[in-house]
# Entry
Amino acid sequence: MAMAPAFVAALEPQHLECEYLPSPIGIDAAHPRLSWLDVSSRREERQTAYRVLAATTKILLKAGKGDLWDSGKVASDDTAQVAYSGRTLASCERAFWAVRVWDGDDRPSAWSEPVAWEMGLLLPDDWHGKWIARAPYESPESADRLPLPLLRREFKLDGKVKQARAYVIGLGYFELSANGQKVGDHLLDPGYTRYDRRILYVSHDITTALRNGENVVGLMLGNGWFNVPTKAAWGFDQAPWRQTPRLLMEIRIEMADGRVMTISSDENWKTSDSPITFSSIYGGENYDARLEQPGWDKPGFDDRSWQPALPVDAPKGRVVAQAIYPIRVDRLVKPISVSQPAPGVCVFDAGQNLTGDAEICLSGAAGTTVTLRYGERLGTDGRVDQSGIGVHVLRFGQDQQFQTDRYTLKGHGLERWHSRFNYNGFRYVEVTGAPSPLTADNLTIRCFHSAVPEVGSFTCSNPLLNKIWENGRWSYLSNLFGIPTDCPHREKNGWTGDAQFACEQGLFYADGITVYEKWMNDIADEQLPNGMLPGICPSNGTWGYMRYGGPSWDSAFLLIPWYLYEYYGDSTALRVHYPEYLLYLNYLTSRARNRIVDVGLPDWSTWKTETPAAVTDTAYYYRDARIIAAVARMLGKSQDAAAADNIADEIRTAFNKEFYHPETGDYSVGSQTALGCALYQDMVEPANESKVLDRLVSNITGQVNQGHLDFGFLGAKYVLNTLTDHGRADVAYGIVSQKTQPGWGWQVGQGATTLWEDWEGSASLNHTFFGDVNAWMMKTVAGVNPDPANPGFKHILIRPDPVGDLTWARGSYDSIRGRIESEWHKESGRFRLTITIPANTSATVYLPANAADLIQESGKPLAEAQGVKLIQGVGGVIPDEPRSSTGRQGNLPTPGAFAGLAVIEIQSGRYEFTSTLPSNK
# Structure
């Protein structure tokens, strides 16, 4: 850029984002968060300052004129959550920005390539149109079988278009086209919310779709979650927001000559029935191709038979921008096999449990209806069996359509079709009604989910662990649809407990902060005035508040933002929702008896031993109080912090009085979940930790369990982590690598391609909540850990454990600060650890070693290595690491458990350590 002096810094700012999105349009954050990565090939490169420029045009920016904002040279190593602090931006205003940084020797970098963000519609008055629909809403029964609507608007442009934006709220879902072409590649927009509290609008760039002369914009609306016709356990067919599909839309067109045109939704739009005669998020879609109206969204179409759009009531929710990664097609999958279990029946096997739909390609006579049924199991007759996944729908009527699409052919050559406004969880697709036998060429499976960038990878010498990792990854992505869900078929619900237990594994897979921050708003929208939260979010307004959930589930509202703080260094969600946290803490306190809480579900999907809900509920009551105290300190609310800490202290005392058995070292019933919970949640008095740990280890390794797990999904989080925290990763690895029932390995042996809901395989075969095992693999086996004392990976903890029969492992993670890599090999008593940490960070390395003076880095003794400092030699006693403000220590050995470990501090760069392994490795 023109204003740049000579630059010599070895740092280069790249990967610029605004609100964690690349060049977003239509955002409504008044002070959007800017971020970048510092990239360098050298060691010890550190940013000491930055300067951000923002300008109204790219020309001004390249000329060095930040007419919107010039931060000046800011002494800081921050590369994320840098808040825009320039002139207040107006609706639809675009800001171009760039950044340069200074290194540790105060040398400036080159300016980054300029990028931009664009504001959306910030004020209610920016929406000039009306809510319109094809039909009014009179009752659930009247809306159940209405065809989905088409809407179109003709307009004429006389000149060249400089820029055009479409701001769309099409409820429940919409598909936008302009002049006959689909706009964008999003699916299932806008994101699912509780529509009587919050509604999202989507911004599309339609500049290249418009032209001089006649133009047409077309919309097809879907029911989605806004108008659920299917009766099911959660009562969304009776949701208070339920209405017929409707549209609010604003098109803003800037012409090259400076004119601005606005086209809004109103009675000038025309509407007709679409070929989609039935649509349900649970049921599927029916499409009659004979009802198609070719050219309906193009200029010149004869719409005289269409009706003027009907003005309708606006939903009650407030309108906000959709600022998340959209749902997109991830990949196209060809079936691995096709079977014919009965005449006229073809069953396609995707080879993988996944989410999406199937595109059918065939020809036949007009009026022929082909049916596609989706499921994850086959019955003994070889056909798709929906009985397990359909249980909560079909018990309200066996005649209800469930995960089924129906396509009626128009009879004109080769026809290709897939559904538009629903998705399915499945491995198998059963097709009936086809006019001729089908082959794999007749079907393509579209796999889709929220298109969050994938950021993590893991592999090791044990193929079983690699398969468990892949199964967890598939389950996590299969359950990310603008909200984190429990399963993609039977429920599709945002179960809070499932989400909080899958969060850390998910953050190691995917850049999910935008989805999680959006979902925290959804949870806040569900909170009752007394502080109570439901087990699913969004809910139908009543389901899940009393009987389902409880602290183990509700704590997602606090824990997920805390994980975002640890992994991204971003406390925004914690600060925004602090008032709701206080309300929730007051609610729990009102339900407690002598600081013991027993109001929720117990450990779910246990193997044999049940743990009383009071144990886990009370521990989360404690954890929540500690988080609230930490957030209060961030906000400078010292009295709140002291009050919350006092509550936490009282809970801890009460917990030990109620549940600890000093004569045995057990908690409560002595289950793995109870013991793991007490240790993991920091409830155990330090003097009793070794005794409680011994009880946990003996429970696992003793005659009864013989190295197997005996817990549900709560215990799955507690036990593996606490064993590793206390130096018994060997026992944790023994659990994970078991191939016999119960365990992840047994599931793999049964052919699992995703994680299951239980240890028997009798429920859902695609669930997320047992997935924290993969976070354990990344943290313990690969050794990549956030540092609770330095959130956002400014400082990294590398602590690989070459446990059991493993001979090598490799993990990588694209953190908010850049890529972290850890790879180790052990052979003939030697250990080699190769580490890469990004510029502008440092790390503490816990290196398995027999003697510190034998450790080398890149072939040199440690004393001669650049960027390396030995903190503690082998066998020393290390002072207690700073604990997270939530009370947990993180994935670190307990103080004093450092025999066989050297502790080394390194700066950014790539390192290769070699050591002689201690005898226990």
